[in-house]
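Second opinion, please. Pick holes in both lines of this record:
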Amino acid sequence: MKESLLKTSKDFISFLHKKRLVLTICAIITLVFGLLNIFVFSNHSEALDSDAFITTWKVSGDSDGRTVKIPVYKNIYKHKINNAAYNYTIDWGDGSPIEAKSGYVSPSHTYANDGEYDIKIEGDFPGMTFSDEPRSQGRRTYYSDAFPDNDDRASESMGRKILFIKQWGKIKWQSMMGMFFNAYEMTGRYTDSPDTSEVKSMNHMFRNAMKFNSPVNFDTSKVEDMGEMFKNANSFNQPVNFDTQNVENMGEMFIYAPSFNQPLNFNTSKVTNMYGMLRHAKAFNHPVNFDTRNVESMSMMFSVAEAFNQPVNFDTSKVTSMYGMFDNAIAFNQPVNFDTSKVTNMGGMFIGATSFNQPINFNTSSIQYISEMFKNATSFNYPVNLSDTSRVNYFSSMFEGATSFNQPINFNTSNATNFGNMFKNATSFNQDISNLDFSVALKRGQYDDGMGDFASNSGLSIKNYDKILKNWHDAVKNDPSITFHHKPSSAGLKYCAATAEHDFLVGLGWTFNDTRDCGIAPQDINLSSNTIDENTPPNTKVADIAMPSDPNDTPGDTNTASLTCATPGADDNAFTITNNKLYLKNPADYEAKNSYNICIRATDEYGNFLDKNFTININNNNELPVVTSTPITTATQGSPYSYTITASDPENAPLTFTASPSNPSWLHFNPSTHVVSGTPGQADAGRTFQVSFTISDGTNTIEHKYNITVSGNGNNQGGNNNQGGGNNGGHNGNQGGGNSGSAGGRGGSNVVNNYTHYHTHITNQNTRNSSNGSGGGSVTDSNPARSDSNNGSNVNDSNSDSSSNKDSNKSLKDKTISSSSHRGNNSSNCQCPVAGSSKKEKRSFFDMTIGELWWFWILIILILIGIIAYLVLRNRDREDEFKEKRVGF
């Protein structure tokens, strides 16, 4: 029995040896271990079901606070979900059973504990929405049964519970309208993209998602509605490379998205609505090369887009409203060559656009409203060429606060019902507008005041305001039907010639806050100065002109100075007056003319004037000397240098020449002949010297300064400097004295012979300083007893021989050889780990870099080795079996 068992064991071992099963088993184990590492052990991140739509919600508080409702759509046509049915499962993420759901009923779940939970949805799930829509009496009706119509806060409360979109999964979405409306806290942590190939509406998809700023790589090829898509998405600033070929509505798409500033390369050929598209997108400033052939509304399109200033070459042939289009777009100042033939409303179009100042040439044949069009557009001052304003009803506040505007007004106002505040606070405006037709507005005043504050605190002169009073007087007097008592206010305005008309209107009950001021002729004319220096620049101010009025004159009465006296001054043509300031047109020359006679007239607002003669005296100033020679700025080593300074004085005063003590020592100056001379030496070659001389006429001094560059003659060869000690040891070689010239001489050599020291430091400090010469010299340690050698060289010129350091000591134990000549500084950029940042990001196998997968490649190699070994040994077994068979024969 024992022998039989022993034989069986030997046979089994022999069998294993022959079949090499041990190696085969090892290879299989290695393969299995590798696969486990790939698919199990290397999965550092939480496993996600690739099919599920996963969102993370945070619940807390009472039962309502711990309840989550998934708001599915009601079955109504507005959602454009193609009658898709709900048939899905939902995992609430707290260990409760997975639920199967269907129909248009919003599922809900109340959690037992506060916390964050991942909710997973799989199956047919066309969409979800927190959306509501306006309803009569201020109530709202929601698109989901999750929110009662009488509780508008329910949507917001539920939306705030969503924290993350973790994964889009493989849901085939039908609609995303209002999908994350009111998701104030939500951000994106997904790495995949949703299947939006059937989605037609993304209207207010991320409205009020104030923290959302994740990629939106969506298939939008069938989307028709992107209105309000990112409304109030305060943080959003991601590329939006959308296919918008079918989009019709982009109204308020980025309204109140203050961080958004990405290119918009949209196909807008089907868009009809751009109302408020970039309103309050305060950071946006990219080109808007939109196809707007079908757009009907551009109202508020760039309202408060504070950074926007790009060309707007739009096709506006179908646009009907431009209301507030550039409202408070404070940077915008581009041409607006729009086709406005169908526009009916331009109200507030440039209100608060403080930089805008471009020509206006609009076809306004359809316009009805242009109120507030340039209100507070403080830079605007172009003629307003509106082709036809006969249909316009409202001119109210059109130029209110437009402080720069002062252009003629030729409007047809035959149907205008309201002129209230039209020129209020337009402080520069002073035009004759008595040609405007106020008749309809005055009649309209029977119901309301169409003239209130018409031109209060504007720049209207007394004469122009007088004309308006006469216009109003004549309109009322000729039409007895105008009975209403108007309150045009007219604060800050003054009248004089229309005193009778003014009193007539007051007698009818009109209320004014204006002032009568017929003025008194100016009492005097004074100049702040009656002298000016000769040789001043053209149009130099001579004096401010003061024209005091009579003490009894009305405060605020203005006087204007001019060179229009009845008997002009002899030299009036040499001067100009601007804003009551006197200017000399051309520089005066005392030697040619030392005084001018002029006459100045002061005129008040009513034509009263005063003429007064003045003499303007010219101050004779000592003028600076002038250098008339051209300096010689080059010299050659070993060759004489010479330059003679010549100068003149406009007053022919004698000149004194003095050389600066800082001039180079090789340069000499003769103050009598004004000759600068000298011969630069070898040490001066290759250097540039700044030389300076002063020239004085006794009153004024000028400095004559220039540079002299000395070049070498190319005939210098560096010498050798040797230092050495027989028994006392060598020291560092002295720097080579060679001067590299044009022929390229070589620097000197430093030689050290050391026979006894074990520690030697040799430094080569020879440095090239010529781009065509040879490099520094060499340093040599020739101790024959040392056992090792070290060579080093660095050169700071790319066209030279390198210097070298040589050490042939055969027994030296420690030594250092260095060179201080350098080619340049080398810098490196290092990305170093942040201190304390030991936490590793969890990633899956497929997220790892090649370097991080070193263990995987080792496993692959082991597997291959095992397979190859198995095949080789198997082949040998077959050869052995074949040999045994042959032996058997």
